[in-house]
């Protein structure tokens, strides 16, 4: 039997690389050095934080509550990450238990945060699950260095037949869905574990604590809603108009999405123009340019895709992932100078896994090697049994 994903991940020795990888992130917040860049951060990044729009769009986004995340909480997470996880690769981080490395004062502080968060989460976790992020971003990179990711991926992969498991597009689908599943939580400890391990959270907090006079972070606690990984979309708004729409998980090919491309695009555009835009205007939301993420789900009727959600608002900056659009080469499209554009992945592209994080590529290579070894061992055993029977 092939080794499970956790065992494979333990043995993976990752190399430091400089190549870009796709992390499907919202905001990439490192490198604001000049006064103009810092002003851009102040005017756009902070303005896109959940607190500024959640009350305006509360009936068209996921049920949400907040609880404070204090400056001293941020400093704690920064200190622990710096001491334990900074500059370490996934193979080192996955087995590193931060709990056992906390100082006594840090343990007490973590317990205080956990109790505060647990109480706030209970509104959703009593009967279901929660999704928790900070005001700007989630810790969606953390599952890759959590041991539980292994079983989530294998569980998703088990839904496919043996002949399909080697398909690259199937692997990408399962990896994306496992990453999404990993963000579904019941306990505050799981949230803290993700946040402390997350480089995304670490980067955001480094910037946030530099602006102490403007520090206004919260735990954003949302009812967890299942979303298929091919039904998330990224929209680009400039001068208040939705000018471009892209498939969010753009390494994935979806036949369903291709079949329903025009229908879904029309629904999202109508949803923005008739529901979202008027609410933002009435609520005096002050950003006229932003990146907005949508989800399409079923309201209950089998096979229907008739429920639309706003997931979040991101800053209109080239540090926000452009999905299938290029900030550098297609600015005119994003600013509405060439009409409305929709883009999706039209066919499975061989080699898409090379755009996944290095840790994932190594993990899959290791899994393939284990499967080959297991098949070889099984073949030897079958040969020996056949010889004995003869």
Spans where pLDDT lies below 50 across 5 or more residues: 1-32, 372-378, 383-390
Strand order in the sheet with the most strands: 7-6-4-5-8
Strand content: 5-15%
Order of helices and strands: HHEHHHEHHHHEEEHHEEHEH
Number of domains: 2
Report the radius of gyration as a whole number of Å: 22 Å
Oligomeric state, counting identical vs distinct chains: single chain
**Mean of the pLDDT scores?**
84
Q: Portion of residues in helices? A: 40-55%
Query: How many helices?
Result: 13
For the sheet with most strands, the description reads: 5 strands, mixed
Family: Belongs to the CDC123 family.
InterPro entries: CDC123
GO cellular component, one term: cytoplasm
Plain-language structure description:
The protein is built from 13 helices and eight strands. The chain has two domains: 63-224, no CATH class; 227-358. It has 390 residues and is α+β, with helices and mostly antiparallel strands. 37% of the residues are buried. The strands form two sheets. The protein has a five-stranded mixed beta sheet, covered by helices on one side. A three-stranded antiparallel beta sheet has the order 1-3-2, with helices on one face. 43% of the residues lie in helices and 13% in strands. Strand 4 (232-238) and strand 5 (241-247) form a beta hairpin.
